[in-house]
Amino acid sequence: MKSMTLEDVRRVLEAEVIVGKDLLHRRVKMGCGSDLMSDVLAFIKPASLLLTGLTNQQTVRTAEMQDIVAICFVRGKKPTDETVKLAQLKNIPLLATRFRMFEACGRLYTEGLPGDYEATESG
Amino acid sequence: MNRDEKITKIQELVYEMKVQEVMRRKVITVGPTTQMSELREILRVNRISGAPVVEGDALVGIISLEDFIKWLANREDDCPIGAKMTRDVKTLYADEPLVTAVNKLEQLGYGRFPVIDRETNELVGIITAGLVIEGLLRKLEIDYSEEEIHRYRASHIFEDILADRTKLLFEYDVVGQDFERAGESASGLKTTLRRLGIDPRIVRRVAIATYEAEMNVVVYTPGGKISCEIDPEKIVVDVRDSGPGIPDVEKAMQPGYSTAPEWVRELGFGAGMGLNNIQKCADEMVLTSDVGSGTHLKVCIFTEQGRGS
Amino acid sequence: MKLSEIVDRLDLSVRSGKEKLGEDVTGGYASDLLSDVIANSNEGDIWITLQIHQNIVAVASMNKLAGIVLVNGREPEEGTLEAAEQEAMPIMVTDMPTFEVVGKLYELGISGTR
Question: Which of C86, C87, C88, C46 is nearest to C70 (CA)?
């Protein structure tokens, strides 16, 4: 199963690193794109990268609860100050890409990052 | 951390960390036409012992203090750096693991390596043995301070307490309608359980169930209380609110059923998945509700020990 | 690429709008926020979402989207299906999550930048 570092994610998505510039060596095993935290809470696996268009603090809370490696905001959305503060406190890297959700997921997938369905199916 | 642990930690880090994490990004370079006589001043002022030689954007060589001393010792005439530099430059890619740098430094005996971006082929930094050590120490310190936080974790609390039955109780107050602060209780509980040394998989289930329950209290009620009772066998989370109550509990349990207002949906919640998700995380779940007086949710999750017995 | 070809390649189950499967898909949009889809999706996009309530049909018709794919094994609500049949809006379902559906579409050449 292929995994990527956050540095790879940053490169592929031409993303800005908002929190966690020193944490880019962390590895993500799979990707998950969702704007519904309820779904993320129900489905996402640990060691995932969360791609979302939501930027409120609850994205970080969700990441914290689910042991998500990092959050990447799509569509050029920037997190609120409170979200940034909470992410710093919880040591959760935040990235931001100008790509839309579709493009961001597509690029990561073609670079070899699986989704949680395949990653789980193949064990 | 004891000594052995520290050594493995360093070995781990050399594989984990990348050249770009320790390299110096600000690189002092010289041109091939710069005179050797000027080199000493450049090295002295910048307090470096060598520099990559760059022509335009291209890396064409590298010149070191050793080269300079050799030139000085031979009492040769002044000449451009280009004539004395090493042309066959050994470089490293920015995304290579630190271990490659360590090996090259050792095997080739060079003091420094220019660092190149794999895609653009541009010079992006320089790495020396000193920078590697500095980077590792910095990283160890960060990891150590993270470790420090966990040092007072009471992993052995249940073994240390002598009693026939031991229970720990934590209580959290939840403020209704305060979306910003929603999740603070679940967060506090999660951190606490981790410090107690409880299996991370169990902690995760408790945290998710508590977070979902807390979110419900915040969205639908004026407030409530979360209490968590822990004994060696199980963790019981008890959530009580003074909200309007749920008229039809069975219906509320259906996946996708939701009475959430639009503002909650736009914030990424209220998709009618919360109660199902709580059930998914729980070993036992009891939900009772009286319209007009509030809702009571009890979630039980067994620990390894509790599952075994 | 025709919608019917996408249905085949991704093994999607069609729940409504079968008569429109011959239409062309010219791009893709993934989002669970209706306001975002209204503002940013384009005509001919295939829309990937978790949302199942009937507003999705109204949004998709308004922006003349090619079809809607519901992910994570979600099924459209009854009202959603009725509206979709009325508007002849193809709705397809899959067990895959958004990330993979999009990944596979992207590999088929469907792009998200327009």
Answer: C46
CB A95 within 8 A of CB A51: no
CA dist C54 and C56 (Å) reads: 5
Every domain of chain A and the residues it spans:
4-121
B221 and B130 fall within a common domain: no
Q: Which of chain B's residues have a Cβ under 8 Å away from the Cβ of C33?
A: 266
- Chain C residue whose CA is closest to A77: C36
Amino acid type, A6: L
Does the model's pTM come out above 0.80? no
Whether the Cβ atoms of residue A10 and residue C79 lie closer than 8 Å to each other: no
Q: Nearest by CB to C35, from B266, B268, B271: name it.
A: B266
Fold of A4-121: 3.40.1390
A83-102 pLDDT, tens digit per residue, is 999 999 999 999 999 999 99
C44 backbone φψ class: left, alpha, beta (φ>0; ψ -120 to 50):
left
C113's tokens: 């930048």
Q: Do the Cβ atoms of B64 and B50 come closer than 8 Å?
A: yes
Chain A residues touching B204 at Cβ < 8 A: 46, 65-67
Closest chain B residue to C32 measured between Cα atoms? Answer: B268
